[in-house]
Amino acid sequence: MFPGASDQQITSWLVYHICWSKSLTDSYIMAMSIDIATLLLLLQVSLLLFSASHAQLARKIAAQGSHNHDNVSIHHDVSSIGHKSFSVAPTTTTTTTTTTTTTTTTSSPHLEMVKDTDGDEESYITNSSSSMIIADLPANATRLLLSNSFTCPQAFFIFGDSLTDTGNIQLLAPGLGATTLNYPYGESYSFTNEPGHNRYSDGRLIVDFIAQAFGFPFFEPILLELDNGFQTDYTHGVNFAYSGATIQPDITKNPIYLQLELDQFFVYKEALFSSPQPSTPLSFLPTAAYLIPEMGGNDFIYAYFRGASPQTVIDEIVPHSLNLLVSAVEQLHESGARTIIVGNQPTLGCSPSILTAFSGSGPYDSIGCLDEYNKVSQVFNIGLERALTSLQENYKADGTLVIQFDFYNAVIELFTNPTQYGFNPSTKLEVCCGFGGAYNYNLNVSCGDSGNVSLSTGGTQFVNINTALNPKEYIEWDGVHFTEAVYKAVTSFFLSGQFVISPPGFSFKQLCNLDFSQF
Question: Which of 27, 148, 335, 411 has the fewest beta carbons closer than 10 A?
């Protein structure tokens, strides 16, 4: 989270934010004698208290006294998935419908299936836009979930990482290392009345396109209410996502993780009920949507850069991350959420940062991505689909809708058919805003920054990466994040019912009469 920052800079910043919480002002006296890991832990506590002094009360609302967040018990155990071996089956065009598996075919002609090679069970994911396979979905689930009881959401509460953050990390850590976004970040879209460059892309993210489609203001970050220079509008929802956030607690890399984002939401929700003028109307809460566009990539990335192999990540990181993500869905449901949207993990093996850092550690797939790193995402996604499908079955009695979006295969579609979506096929794995190497990316100087870059011919070169190529023709923005054009395409897929795993074909655009004209 803090590349390029000295220990003193990090310590000073952490002290400031620890002291931001009145409950921890005494920490200031001892701060300089505490190591950074401890300070990060204290920061987690301070964030929980940022908008109220009764975080435990807010947590109780969500858990209803039944959860111990330090030792969560998950009924949909996916721990075994990390120890299974997966392989890609040959391409097939077969379309099958049974009582437990439904296939809906769209425009493309082929389907790739991932099978559990121990032979006792089959799981499927698509590797193109050809089909959406719904494994183990009860035959009546679609009819149940698409009943007339569905009400279009008037508010969204959002959780996630840098693919979703609209400014929280900049507000939390202004001017520190990777949290500072310089031009050309934001070059493709001007966000009025918002502080600086606050999105890790050239423009809008998935959550921004969703807001525009519904006719809502952009979902503002929860920490914006602490900045007196800006007037917040949380009428139609709040964004609790932080760049760098993980599912599992990982204070060695980032003090923010999913449970903390949830706890901030519970604090916010408690404040709504105690306020004479709630910033989000209470009447919007029963039909609000709770959105996690994706999460878990940072858990994997941090492990890779600590030296873990893809197989180690599958065995040791994936199962626990899945259990905690499923726990988050359970907590949201218990707090009253009845429309919950979860996207799966996209294509880390196609990320230029991974391709550069682990160059030569193939094999590579037909796109040019590192196959073993993409398989980690596939294994995670299979486990997530199983668990969320089980939750949907458990929740059907109270009308809860658990919508699963296939982020992975939506992006694979763009890589597979780039020209169809306006992308340049010759640069589909290259970075739009970067410098050097096979992917126009280096690990030392990132988009918007300047510094010395090692050259393949020897020596170094000083570069100032303050310009970008045409972002509309690129999939990869800065080596880690996607371009606005990708988020536009992915959001269009999702809201129109494409790559929706469950309920299959669920279309917000059709049901809520959405308007894509601002896209």
Answer: 148
For this structure, is 162 an active site residue?
Answer: yes
Check 162, 188, 201, 377 and give the catalytic one: 162
Nearest to 361 by CA among 407, 404, 307, 300: 307
Contact (Cβ atoms closer than 8 angstroms) between residue 281 and residue 41: no
Residues 299, 351, 478, 502: which is the catalytic one? Answer: 478
What is the distance of C-alpha 132 from the center of its chain?
21
Residue identified by tokens 């007339």 is 148
Examine residue 217 and say whether the peptide bond preceding it is cis (omega within 30 degrees of 0): no
The residues near 162 (Cβ < 8 Å, ≥ 6 apart) are: 169, 200, 241, 243, 244, 245, 480, 481
How far is CA 91 from its chain centroid? 29
Residue 59: its H or E element: helix 55-63
What radius of gyration, in Å, describes the C-alpha atoms of the chain?
Answer: 22
Kindly state the tokens that stand for 77: 């155990």
Two structure tokens written together for 98: 């049974």
481 is an active site residue: yes
User: What are the residues whose beta carbons fall under 8 Å from the beta carbon of 302, sequence distance 6 or more?
Assistant: 246, 250, 252, 253, 254
The DSSP line for 2-37 is -TT--HHHHHHHHHHHHHHSGGGTTHHHHGGGS-HH
DSSP for 421-433, written as a single string:
GT--GGGTTSBSS
Kindly report whether the peptide bond that precedes residue 310 is cis, defined as omega within 30 degrees of 0: no
- Report the alpha-carbon distance of residue 461 to residue 175 in Å, rounded: 25
Catalytic residue among 333, 481, 496, 502: 481
Rounded to whole angstroms, how far apart are CA atoms 76 and 365? Answer: 32
372 Cβ neighbours under 8 A, 6+ residues apart: 310, 311, 349, 361, 363
How many residues are there in the chain? 519
Q: Quick: pLDDT tens for 272-302.
A: 999 999 999 999 999 999 999 999 999 999 9
